[in-house]
């Protein structure tokens, strides 16, 4: 044992170091090597299985096209691509899928996966001519969530001046599509439409026993003897006075863009008339998987079938960049563009309309109540 | 297949895993060629692969890590070696090619991960048949699937037919992945963090998404379980990425007449842990046997909450006078771990010895509570008098999802008033947790059986609830793991989180999920 380093060769002892130093350098180096090789192996597994499956999906698609055009389900269809062979209903790989297959198809919708986020860290512009699977890499950008969304800051509170109102109207009109506003929800008791940030307080006075008088009584009861109640009796702010913002005791958060606080009273009236529900889709969708009772929690050790690569890890796989910012329109996603998708398309047709392009429908219904302005887009 | 008694000598012919549509039959052409050489060769190869996996995962790593070097001496190394699939040889990377050329054995198994290397491809190969064996071995410690149990769970074989599933269900969009924020309805972040940890709990998710509680068939008005059911639907079936408005849960919460949680129902910020207890009891009542869970009793139930969160602990009290021991068993929803005494002890130690004490760990807290015994006064039946007794609490049955609460909020009894205070000291916690030392079976045998037991007591971190800020004006955020990726949920805002960010958080509640469902 007189090597100065281990397998990775990152941690090195010098030649004239003592045996113990050399040994510990070698051990540490080997451990680093193991950590790196475990990480690489995990990524390799996800990538290679995804690509092998992509090759299989492609060749199966060609086979089903071939058999559909001829007699129904010819058993002796044999299709060969660069990456795989379809023979007698089975798929055999040809060569190394990491080399033969460039993109990854989603096993569910058979559309290509987008490799890079569209915004933020490691972002690249997607090819506008390609229809991608809707599962995009998550966006890592300050002040945005994983979908690149932002939320509109709170409007001016109660007792604001007319000037502020006008200003708000303006900003709402030209706010970009990815800036969302807080939606409203219907109180299940009085069926009134309440801005979500006020919902708890509303329910307190509408359903709960913490109506104006009840809460005062309770506060008095608890307040006796300077109780250990950790919170000031803030339920009294059911009807906040002007300037309650400053003294409001429970306003949370360190980093968030502010939210909450009250809405002006005339706004409330408007909400009532627009009557928006937060759940526009009453129809139920069941996700039934064959192994629904099998558990999938073993994430950290059990390799999974889906690729969870982050954008950095995938950075080496290029997608053609045609220099346009536009993302393919969402609507076309549901059109069956290829024969292999026909089956799915039938299914999609049975879906309630809200689900089909649920994002658009929901986005509108949820946000239109929150602001007085036009819906996003 | 698995219903047959699996005697090791039975000359069972192994089969290639039936491929699902959209996946190849073999890992590469060369594996295909090997398996197509005949049933005997395939039996031998797969049998040998299983044996190697057993060697890697069931015994000490010394054996697969030891090879014979060129001078004929056994050598042990830390990095991976290559175990030949076709003969009992262990080789270094350098020797591998030589061996391959001499014997035309082309497949080698990585001695640390059990993955298969194909020399012709010069790459690791993920063969579906072999990979399934490896994943099972890592996950459950055995090769056989839980087929029999599965059949019992689903006696209606017709319902397992893929065509039946295809016609009676709708496929969710690829975007619907359960990652959405929940709007803060005015000081409700303590609810949001608990709801997020429920949403990303695979057991609860599978229960609700497989129609465990159908809101369309439930007659209870303002049923909280229905509200949770609707929430799961909205998270996992809709493409919406906007935040979720938990209006029905909130109204169910307000309307609930659970007397024990009367004080919780206010418009003020509350304790997330209490809300968790509230939800657990409420959902038990909606889905369970209808019996109220009494604290301190050994209550079990088949409802989803009990199957997910509840375990049992045993308290052994030994009389110091007559050495008579009594056992008391009670079920628990979570483990509450005190921090105050440990924090004080540490501060004292630093004062006396100087220097920096290492940060408090979850293991320290568990050791304190479930390994060390404490003294108490106890009325012994044998002695018929009050005696000093030793009391030791250990876990009798571990739950599938282990929830742990750090008692960060303490009421200090002052002379005139009780003031709440928060202990803000960091407590480090691991991604993987071995609970075996805290069970009453800790004195298990060493070796294979011990390893298997340890495997069955291994937990993975699932979600973390953090309270930031002061006790009066604080805010709750949570971290949940989806696959291997962590996300940070701050009300409606969801963003990516790194593992180090998660592990560096000052946790209040921890949820660990068992690695293998036995």
Automatic annotation (TrEMBL), chain A:
Q: Where is the composition biased (Polar residues)?
A: 223-238, 298-312
Skewed-composition ranges (Basic and acidic residues): 163-173
Query: What organism is this sequence from?
Result: Emericellopsis atlantica
Classify the source by domain of life: Eukaryota
Residue numbers spanned by region Disordered: 149-176, 217-377
Question: What is the official name of this protein in its record?
Answer: Transcriptional activator
Query: For bias kind Low complexity, which ranges apply?
Result: 335-353
From TrEMBL, chain B:
Which GO terms of the cellular component aspect does the record hold?
Answer: cytosol; nucleus
GO MF annotation list: cysteine-type deubiquitinase activity
The USP domain, residue ranges: 180-515
Xref: Pfam families: UCH
Q: Which region is the signal sequence?
A: none
Q: Where are the membrane-spanning stretches?
A: none
Q: Name one GO biological process term.
A: protein deubiquitination
Q: Kindly give the InterPro entries that the UniProt entry links to this protein.
A: Papain-like_cys_pep_sf, Peptidase_C19, Peptidase_C19_UCH, USP, USP_CS, Znf_RING/FYVE/PHD
Read off the CDD domains from this record: Peptidase_C19D
Coiled coil segments of this chain: none
What PROSITE patterns does its record include? USP_2 (PS00973), USP_3 (PS50235)
Q: What is this protein called?
A: USP domain-containing protein
Source organism per UniProt: Emericellopsis atlantica
